[in-house]
Write a structure and sequence with these properties.
By secondary structure, this protein is of the alpha+beta class. It folds into three domains: 122 residues, Butyryl-Coa Dehydrogenase, subunit A, domain 1 (Orthogonal Bundle), CATH 1.10.540.10; 89 residues, Butyryl-CoA Dehydrogenase, subunit A, domain 2 (Beta Barrel); 160 residues, Up-down Bundle (Butyryl-CoA Dehydrogenase, subunit A, domain 3), CATH 1.20.140.10. The protein contains eleven helices and twelve strands. β2 and β3 form a beta hairpin.
């Protein structure tokens, strides 16, 4: 009997089934893309053609109408079992669609007809498989709450300048959604998100992604030099520059939870490979199976325990986030609600990231020296799984500060 996480909605079941199918396909090319550091263009074409990447587009606009964040988490965990690089890249686009569909509904409910119409047209383009998106938010020397990329008001819109790092999906993205700061009348800044087409003069994808792991994610730097953005392509403006405030946790939760779930998928893939190896492999004079040796049984048991813990916290936080999103379908949640949930998300992130690393490490021990070779599956999984703790919005030491401050009833802004 399997205790994998399972989807709960019909759209989610369709999404997860496609994720499993794509995982089997992308696994056949994962080693090559990892070695080359190349982006899996063919995999993204296949995921566009199947509708997988447009799952969160409403059915009226050509998608599955997937609204369940939890089911998206399950699907991304399955996709990661084929290749984690492809999964985190697909996640950035797919969860972005989920957020855009939500913002479209909120804009309509708030009477912002122009923004609702802009986002409806975007969703139609995504549903038709014509648009892939990149959401670069990270920058060197600052945090995602305090972007340095600036949108300065100009006639009919804004001029954007700045440099983003970790621009996942950038090799094939048609639209970029950088977070920006906008000068306000008080002498400070507001924050917002810009929509910038790839062919905009001044936009440059640097092609410089060369990391230890997640090598096929296409997470290049993206530079914006005097990029003009029409006024209607700036959305989500908030007066919360440099603060963990409204909006940020709401949007981050949608992108972050499925991303964390991909690391659960890496751990599950390592466990599956290790079990398959020890149940077949025989060693020594007795030709006894590795699975029949007590030390191996102990290591596998530890893997099972860590995966059980990871699934439990993933399901618990995922369901809490699902209810949170349902309550705020047409209105923004309060900063108190968002912050309380983000604390739980950070607890989940820490547990799943660490447990997944431990599971892959034990799997390498179980499988022996062959796992140290570059072509070995576990070698790639180990390098990929190490990326988890570095993922935004907090470094591990910052996450402890954030969690502690929330638990103690203190201001959640970090001491930076």
């Amino acid at each position: 009997m399997s205790f994998e996480l399972l989807p709960r909605t019909e759209a989610g079941k369709r999404f997860v089934k496609l994720a499993e199918s794509h995982a089997a396909d992308i696994a056949t090319r994962a080693e090559q893309h990892d070695r080359e550091g190349s982006f899996p263009v063919e995999s993204f074409e296949a995921m566009k053609s199947s509708g997988f990447l447009a799952a969160a587009v409403p059915t009226d606009f050509g998608g599955f109408g997937l609204e369940s964040l939890y089911d998206m988490m399950v699907g991304m965990s399955r996709l990661a079992k084929g290749d984690a690089s492809t999964a985190i890249a697909a996640n950035m686009h797919a969860t972005g669609v989920l957020v855009i569909a939500r913002v479209m509904k909120r804009s309509g409910a708030a009477g912002d007809v122009q923004m609702a119409a802009t986002l409806q047209e975007l969703l139609r383009q995504i549903g038709a498989g014509r648009v892939l998106m990149s959401f670069p938010t990270s920058e060197p020397g600052t945090d995602i709450y305090t972007p340095m990329t600036e949108a300065v008001p100009s006639k009919g819109g804004y001029v954007v300048n700045g440099r983003k790092i970790f621009g996942t999906v950038s090799p094939v993205a048609d639209l970029f959604f950088p977070s920006v700061r906008i000068p306000n009348d008080a002498g400070g800044y507001a924050t917002a998100t810009a929509i910038i087409p790839r062919n905009t003069p001044g936009l440059e994808v640097m092609g410089n992604w060369d990391a230890m792991g997640m090598r096929a994610s296409g997470s290049n730097d993206v530079v914006f030099t005097n990029c003009f953005v029409p006024a209607e392509r700036i959305f989500g403006r908030r007066e919360n520059y440099g603060k963990v405030g409204r909006g940020f946790p709401d949007f981050l939760i949608s992108g972050l939870l499925p991303l964390i779930a991909t690391f659960l998928g890496i751990g599950e893939a390592a466990r599956d490979f290790a079990v398959a190896t020890v149940t077949k492999q025989r060693k020594g004079i007795s030709q006894k199976r590795l699975a029949d040796r007590i030390p191996i049984q102990h290591l596998i048991a530890e893997c099972e325990i860590d995966l059980s813990v990871s699934r439990a916290i993933t399901e618990r936080v995922g369901q809490a986030a699902e209810l949170f999103i349902q309550r705020s379908a047409t209105t923004e949640p309060t900063s108190e609600e968002s912050t309380a949930l983000m604390k739980e998300v950070q607890c989940m992130k820490y547990v799943v990231n660490r447990k997944a690393i431990d599971v892959v490490d034990r799997a390498m021990t179980v499988c022996g020296g062959g796992a140290f070779m570059h072509k070995h599956l576990l070698s790639r999984l180990y390098r990929d799984v190490r990326a988890g703790p570095f993922m935004q919005p907090f470094a591990p030491y910052e996450a402890f500060e954030y969690i502690g401050k929330i638990a103690l009833g203190l201001d959640p802004n970090l001491d930076r």
